[in-house]
Amino acid sequence: PDLATFVEGLQAFLDETVELQAFQYEIALEGRRDRELNGVVRDLYDAYHDATREALRSAGAADDDVTTRLVFAALDGLSFQQLVYGPDAQTDACVQRLRELLAAAPKRRP
Under a CB-based contact definition with an 8 Å cutoff, are residues 105 and 61 in contact? Predict the structure, then answer.
């Protein structure tokens, strides 16, 4: 894997799992009111954070904590926008721009 294929197919995946994506956001919001559920949501987000770090590392991109959080936040936001805007969200175009930004950023050190 490299940056050219980083999170390839995100828009199609979101289109295919729209109900699951909506459910996860609903649970995340409910977790603000329910302390026990908040722990589950945080665990889920931690797992997504870890997966993002591994994807960045595999692509040869910077994978420090700040970059990882920034990239995950971008992907999370794109996912939410896909729910709101559907096909008009331009998710694939935004992912391409994210790849370009990552390619221009300093790489991780060996």
Answer: yes
| Rounded Cα distance, 34 and 28, in Å | 10
DSSP letters spanning 40-65 = HHHHHHHHHHHHHHHHHHHTT---SH
Expressed in percent and rounded to 5, the helix, strand and coil fractions of the chain are 80, 0, 20
What lies within 8 Å, CB to CB, of 67 at 6+ separation is 56, 61, 105
pLDDT in tens, the chain (110 residues): 789 999 999 999 999 999 999 999 999 999 999 999 999 999 999 999 999 999 999 999 999 999 999 999 999 999 999 999 988 889 999 999 999 999 998 886 55
